[in-house]
Design a protein that fits this description.
The chain is mainly β. It contains no helices and eleven strands. It has strands at about 1-5, 10, 15-25, 30-40, 45-50, 55-60, 65-70, 75-80, 90-100, 105-115, 115-120. Strand 5 and strand 6 form a beta hairpin. It is elongated and about 55 Å long. It starts with a strand and ends with a strand.
């Protein structure tokens, strides 16, 4: 599975952005999808996740401001980000949790990552 993230950019504090992540390849193997971010000098952290059934979870720092959604028909996950502040500045990565069986019957669980899209929030 290949993931292509887009939608990052420069935005003023208090503004909004919507990130998109489109999946291609063996998309039938995708279960949950999620967004992570990594700020300069910090570890990568989970921002939001969504299961194949639509259940969501969020980091405390973004609850009430960010919303994750997915369009299974388009194999795309979105992250609507509102009320952005400087602490949201980071490279945002989408991830897809995969589950499939190989031709030899091996049960495989794996994660695929997108290339990252930079979000910069200015004051």
């Amino acid at each position: 599975v290949q993931l292509q993230a887009s939608g990052g950019g420069l935005v003023q504090a208090g503004g909004s952005l919507r990130l998109s992540c489109s999946a291609s390849g063996s998309t039938a193997s995708i279960n949950a999808m999620s967004w992570y971010r990594q700020a300069p000098g910090k570890q990568r952290e989970l921002v939001a996740g969504i299961t194949s059934g639509g259940s969501t979870n969020y980091a405390d720092s973004v609850k009430g401001r960010f919303a994750i959604s997915r369009d299974n028909a388009k194999n795309t996950v979105y992250l609507q980000m509102n009320s952005l502040n400087r602490e949201d500045t980071a490279v945002y990565y989408c991830a897809a949790d995969l589950h499939y069986y190989t031709d030899t019957g091996e049960d495989v669980v794996a994660r695929s990552w997108g290339q990252g899209t930079l979000v910069t929030v200015s004051s």
